[in-house]
Amino acid sequence: MTSEREVLVFRALGLGGFLTGLPAYRGLRRHFASHRMVLAAPGELTGLALLSGAFDEVLPTTGLDGLRWGRPAPDIAVNLQDKGPRSHHALLTLSPRRRIGFRASGWSGPIWDPGEHDVSRWCRLLETAGVGADPTNLRLPPPATPSVVPDAIVIHPGAASASRCWPASRYAEVARRLASSGRPVVITGTSRERRLAEQVARQAGLTSDTVLAGDLDLLGFAALIASAQLLVCGDTGPGQLATAYATPSVLLFGPRSPRLWGPPQGQHRHRVLWYGPHRGDAWGSRTDPALLAITPDHVLAVARDQLRLRNGKGWIPAARVANGIAEVARAVRSR
Q1: Which pTM was predicted?
Q2: Mean pLDDT (whole number) for 72-94
């Protein structure tokens, strides 16, 4: 058991949630340089958390009720999970000397803003506590493990909910037409998404060895994204990973605004397609209508621009998300 003073950061979310917290973690690391930094998060994030340089340890934690501390009270407890009250209560039971979180019963702090980008939200929280955080500090170093398929086009059809999943047949059309140019295309996902990835590959006419869903651990997947030519995916964690590695991406948004979860301002290597303004159910059981409004031609027009720019013609600022679909539709008509 350590005798060091410890900062416990509670963020028991998935890949995307972990990555949008990077600037906040690094602000805490700099400000509390003499403390031991502990992240309460799902165990599969351990490799990336240590790679970030912000943490000394990951305490495997799943969900709001999964926090198991079992050691002397942390010096500081930081709630980067949500606005409470359940997450606040979980940290209160540990009796930390100092608490940092959004305002709620028994907690002082700033007021939660539901219209704020997730990266900005946690930086603002820390700044009100006297801890500086740079919202542009989103990059990760590549893993030591090399990519299993260097310089690939990565198609990631899965998402955490059905409402954020673009149809498999449309992903297949995009994969088929990109692969026809001779570029290596792979289909990724979790082990639970293996069947979906196989369906996309089969409909695209790709061989079974292009399906990597369930074959890579998170560091292996990070290495794949870090070396990729392009990522095409929905509103899901791999899109945040593309931001962390400045890998060109085409991101398909539906029920929730990319102004809240998409690439932050200034991230010009990432193009967002969204038929907004629109607000749907991010955890719905059917594909959101705004996502269905995006066609394979929309995606291919932008994907080809991304590949052209990446391969030697320089980068130009992308249109902002509010104009993304209209811009793509014009590009499709002009071809």
Answers
A1: 0.90
A2: 96
